[in-house]
Design goal:
Elements (H helix, E strand, L loop, with lengths): L2 H24 L5 H16 L10 H26 L4 H9 L2 H12 L5 H15 L15 H30 L4 H23 L8 H25 L6 H8 L2 H12 L6 H17 L1
Helix pairs in contact: 1-3, 1-9, 1-10, 1-11, 2-8, 2-9, 3-7, 3-8, 4-7, 4-11, 5-6, 5-7, 5-10, 6-12, 8-9
C-alpha cells in the first residue's frame, strides 16, 4: 500500500470521527467561536513537533498557510453552525462532497486530465446534495418550514465550497514550494484568530470559558490536527493527483453516517440512503 493511500485513509478516519464530535458539540447552545479557538490551540500544540516548518521559501509557506487557514476556519465554523439544525449525516455528506468543485477546478488549475467517468461522478455528487433539499422526505431537517430550513442548508453548502478551496490551495501551495508542515501549522493558527473574531461578531452573549467546550476542543483539536497533517502529507507527493486524493478522503461521510445512526440515533430514511448511494457512485467514478 502506497504512502499516499495510507495518509489519505488516515485523513478519512480523522474526518469521520471529528464530524461526529462537531455534532455532539453543536447540539447545545455553546460558543462556536471559542470552540474553534480551543480546537486551534490544541491542534497547534499537537503540530508543533513537526520538523521543517518553513521549508526553503518561508514567504510561500506563510502565504499559503494563511490562505488555507482562512478556507479551513470559515468552512468549519459554517459546518458547526449548520449542525445545530441539520443531522450529522446530512452535513457530513454535503460537506465531504465538495469534490464536485475540486474536480473541475483541478482541471482548470492543475491541468489534470479527466474523462467522462469523472464528470458523471460530479453529477452524482450534485444529486446527493439535491436529495437533501428542504421538502425532501426524511432529509434530516428539523424545521418544518422550508424557509427556516434554507439558511442552514446554504451554510453547509457554503462550507463545502470553502472545504474545496482548502484542498485546492494546499495542492497549489505545495506546487509553489510551500512546506506542508508549515502550512498545516499556520492553518490552525488562523483557527485561533478566527474563533474570537467570530465570537465578538456573533456571540457576545456566550460564555468565553466553558469546561465542556474546552474538553470538546481538546478532542477535536487532536482530530483536526490529524486531518490537516495527513491531507498535507498525501498531497505533497508530486504524483498525488488532487482529483484522486481529495475524493478518497471525502469518503468519511459514509463512516459518519453509520456513527451518527448508532450514537445519535439519527433516522435512516429513503432520501438519506439515496443520497449516500449517489455519494458512493460519485466517489467510485471519480477515483
Amino acid at each position: 500500500m502506497s504512502l499516499i493511500l495510507i495518509f489519505t485513509l488516515c485523513c478519512l478516519a480523522c474526518s469521520a470521527v471529528n464530524d461526529l464530535v462537531f455534532k455532539f458539540f453543536a447540539r447545545k447552545e455553546r460558543s462556536r467561536g471559542m470552540f474553534v479557538m480551543y480546537v486551534g490551540i490544541f491542534s497547534t500544540l499537537f503540530l508543533l513537533f513537526l520538523p521543517d516548518k518553513w521549508g526553503d521559501d518561508w514567504r510561500t509557506t506563510l502565504l499559503w498557510g494563511v490562505i488555507g487557514g482562512i478556507f479551513s476556519a470559515v468552512g468549519n465554523i459554517l459546518l458547526i453552525e449548520s449542525m445545530s439544525s441539520l443531522s450529522a449525516g446530512m452535513c457530513s455528506t454535503i460537506y465531504r462532497l465538495n469534490l464536485a468543485l475540486v474536480v473541475p477546478f483541478s482541471v482548470l488549475i492543475f491541468g489534470e486530465e479527466l474523462g467522462l467517468k469523472q464528470y458523471l461522478g460530479v453529477a452524482f455528487a450534485l444529486a446527493a446534495i439535491l436529495a437533501f433539499l428542504p421538502g425532501s422526505t426524511g432529509a434530516g431537517v428539523k424545521q418544518t418550514d422550508r424557509k427556516a430550513a434554507l439558511l442552514p442548508l446554504v451554510m453547509i453548502i457554503t462550507a463545502a465550497v470553502f472545504r474545496a478551496g482548502l484542498g485546492l490551495s494546499y495542492k497549489y501551495g505545495f506546487m509553489q514550494g510551500a512546506s506542508p508542515n508549515g502550512v498545516s501549522l499556520l492553518t490552525m493558527v488562523l483557527w485561533i484568530i478566527s474563533g474570537p473574531v467570530y465570537c465578538l461578531w456573533r456571540e457576545r452573549a456566550q460564555k468565553w470559558f466553558d469546561i465542556k467546550t474546552v474538553r470538546y476542543g481538546i478532542l477535536s483539536g487532536l482530530l483536526v490536527a490529524g486531518i490537516i497533517f495527513f491531507m498535507a502529507q498525501a498531497l505533497k507527493f508530486k504524483d498525488a493527483n488532487a482529483s484522486v486524493v481529495l475524493p478518497i478522503a471525502q469518503m468519511s461521510f459514509l463512516v459518519t453516517f453509520v456513527l451518527s445512526a448508532v450514537f445519535l440515533k439519527e433516522k435512516i430514511t429513503v432520501c438519506k440512503i439515496g443520497a449516500l448511494l449517489c455519494g458512493v457512485a460519485a466517489l467510485i467514478l471519480l477515483t
